[in-house]
Amino acid sequence: MTDTPTPRPKRQLWNYTPQLPLQLAPYWDWPLRPLASVKYLLASWNPIAQRFFILLMAVVVWTWFTPDLERTQTLAFDWIFEIWLRDLVILLIIAGGLHLALWKYRVQDDDYRYDMRPMMKGARAFTFRNQVWDNMFWTLGPALLFVTFWEALMWYAYANGWARMITFESNPVWFLALILLIPIWAGFHFYWLHRLLHVGKLYTWVHSWHHRNINTGPWSGLAMHPVESFFLLFDTMIFFLIAANPLHVLFLIFHHLIGAPTSHAGFEHVKIGKRVNLPMGDFFHQLHHRFFDCNYGTWETPWDKWFNTFHDGSDDGNELVKERRRKIWSTN
Fold first, then answer.
1. Using the 8-state DSSP alphabet, how is residue 235 labeled?
2. Which residues contact 58 (CB under 8 A, 6 or more apart)?
3. Is there a contact between 169 and 239 (Cβ–Cβ < 8 Å)?
4. For residue 84, pLDDT beyond 60
């Protein structure tokens, strides 16, 4: 009689996950679920939600830390440099602050941390053979320059009448509606740009730079090839087609400047004291970095579900991704 071999324990992929399976925003459900959509909106706009913080930052920056449009009628180094310097400070505070708190000084240990693997050191895949230094270099270099470029272009366009500008007083309904629509537009642009960057040589030559970050930290969000950095904010060109306010422009730009570092932070929450947990990470996108060919967009938009690239974080989702890979490889 032979002993029955002890089954190998299942490898634990994650240290922490939000409630699974993940659910997309209910706007796209059929039949329509208006009550669920309203509840989702209220939850996503509560005062400690990341979206509210991004909008608040846009209001503060537009009111006190943006050059007057009269100055931007003419391209000049001084006001463009002011934008670059302000955005540098924002990145150092948000991405740098999160990195120091969560990764270097580990103020909450591993509470709410998705992936237990450390930031990589000594890996030839990274500039300077160090993941954090690499990420900081590409974020504070090309990415920051292109954020400045797109913002400066929009201020120049508004100042010279190339883009139509509204105010809350002139069109309050559209002004408020656009605030609700911008996250959906950002998700639409991100999904299709992202899918394109996963095709053939575009992935090999461009997007693979970002995917060196299998495990992500705050500096990983904007650490990418300069070509990708340039087109990441191409979604701001929508404001040449629709009437908007500079506040809307900053709200969209800050989805990248602020949203990318926070969504890649690697932690679901940041603990403030014993009772307050600030929503921070994006497990939906963390799954993309782990499994590669899923969750190209955001949970705000339906594209991943409609095109069968949605991973809900469950074990069944893992198997669906593996099966899709097998089919792709079998046809190559």
1. G
2. 247, 250, 251, 254
3. no
4. yes
Q: What is the pLDDT of residues 123-178, one digit of tens each?
A: 999 999 999 999 999 999 999 999 999 999 999 999 999 999 999 999 999 999 99
Cis bond before residue 302 (omega within 30° of 0): no
Mean pLDDT for 283-287 is: 96
The mean pLDDT value of the chain amounts to: 93
* pTM of the predicted protein model: 0.93
Q: How big is the chain by its Cα radius of gyration, in Å? A: 21
Please enumerate in sequence order all residues whose Cβ is within 8 A of that of 236, keeping only pairs 6 or more positions apart, or say none. 150, 151, 153, 154, 249, 252, 253
Handedness of CA 122, 126, 132, 136 (dihedral sign): positive
Neighbours of 228 (CB within 10 A): 22
- Kind and range of the H or E element at 271? strand 269-272
3 state DSSP class of 222: coil
Residue 131, helix vs strand vs coil: helix
Q: How far is CA 287 from CA 169, 216, 299, in A?
A: 43, 11, 12
